Structures are given as structure tokens and as C-alpha cells.
Amino acid sequence: MLTPRSSMKSFSLITNGGNVNLSLIVCVESLISRTKKSRSLKSRKRMQRKRLERLKRRKN
Predict the structure, then answer these.
(1) How many domains is the chain partitioned into structurally?
(2) Mean pLDDT over residues 15-30, rounded?
(3) What is the C-alpha to C-alpha distance for residues 48 and 32, in angstroms, rounded to an integer?
(4) What is the 3-state secondary structure (H, E, C) of 2-60?
(5) Where in this protein does the record put region Disordered (predicted)?
(6) Which residues contact 19 (CB under 8 A, 6 or more apart)?
(7) In the chain, what is the straight-line distance between the N-terminal and C-terminal CA atoms, in Å?
(8) Global pTM value
(9) Domain of residue 16, residue span
(10) Separation of alpha carbons 52 and 56, rounded Å
(11) C-alpha distances in Å from residue 26, one per residue of 29, 35, 39, 49
């Protein structure tokens, strides 16, 4: 993320209804981290598949 988590939390606390903003930020952060993880997993699987294909070709 562009801004560090601590600064975001302090900003949300300063605004009125800080708790609401905090929960929103936490939700956004968890969503972002989830998407990043899923992307990395997909790419890793793709790499493994390519590696397997290469090995098969060598054997043949």
C-alpha cells in the first residue's frame, strides 16, 4: 500500500466516528492482502506447470 498502516489509523481516529473509519480501513487492507496472496498463488501454480511441461519434453 502507498501509505503506512499506522498513519492511516491515526488519520481515521482524528476524524469523527473514528471507529467506523478504522473498521473500513481494516476491511480494505484485508481485501488487498487477500487479492495479492491469490495472485501470487496463481502465478506460482502457472510456473510449476511450465516447469513440469519442460521436464516432460526433455524425457520425450
Answers:
(1) 1
(2) 67
(3) 25
(4) CCCHHHHHHHHHHCCCHHHHHHHHHHHHHHHHHHHHHHHHHHHHHHHHHHHHHHHHHHC
(5) 36-60
(6) none
(7) 46
(8) 0.32
(9) 5-59
(10) 6
(11) 5, 14, 20, 35
